[in-house]
Amino acid sequence: MQSVNEELQSTNEELETSKEELQSVNEELATVNAELQTKVLDLSRANNDMNNLMAGTGIGTVFLDYQLRILRFTPTATRMINLILSDVGRPVGHLVSNLVGYDGLVADTRAVLDSLIPKEVEVQTTEGRWYTMRILPYRTLDNVIEGAVITFVDITEMKHAQEALQKTNDLLRLAVVVRDAHDAITVQDLEGRILAWNPGAVRLYGWSEAEALAMNVRDRIPEELRKEALALLRKLSQAEILEPYLAQRMTKDGSILKVSIISTALMNEAGQMYAIATTERPRESKMIRTAGASDGRPE
Length: 299
Description:
Shape: rod-shaped
Largest sheet: 6 strands, antiparallel
Number of domains: 3
Radius of gyration: 41 Å
Strand content: 25-35%
CATH topology of the largest domain: Beta-Lactamase
Strand order of the largest sheet: 2-1-6-5-4-3
CATH class of the largest domain: Alpha Beta
CATH architecture of the largest domain: 2-Layer Sandwich
Structural class: alpha+beta
Distance between the termini: 149 Å
């Protein structure tokens, strides 16, 4: 009995030791569990921050695995590719894109994965917006390539600015041509009001630009020729093609000058004529001092 009692006592001591060890392990597990909970909270916060960052920047992003299957995407990416949540896991080549004139997404992505060289392309959507599409390899922290990342950055405003700048440059070049031209170049609206008057017109007719812009084209036509000249203007307003023609125009000092006129219709983006540009060149240096000295008809 004494021997058995000693064995039981020894066993009890071992159990006490095991209990202490279990308590120590339990404390360690509690510590690890607390650390894991902290890491889960940090990961959840980081994930929320990342989602808000990607949504706030407005950059469409699509993550693909090495087989070009969709892993995840941002809401903005749905403007470029028709994506829904159930598309996760599907090959990107099976989806319909909203890109106009570009169908090389799969081939370009595969080329990036093979060469590890990023690719950048400007693309346009069916909505008329422009994006810079970048395809980059997806690298892990261990520098392992596990897929690709496709991003879409909206450059619509930049495109519009480039187009506006190009138009401005074109207008500046045209303005230089008009300014430095030896011929008289004028622009008048469909009612005959003068809208533009270049230095050549100042030299030829004598009126300054400010004076001419307050005038109507009929003010420069001899009275007996106005009816015929205005009829010619109406023909041009009806989009009839006119050959260069001879006419008579008055100068500031009252002289009548015989000129050769080339008229051109100015059209807006809708294809509607809004003004008429004329290039006028004197036919002879001699001027008629009064309208009465003319036969009343252009040569």
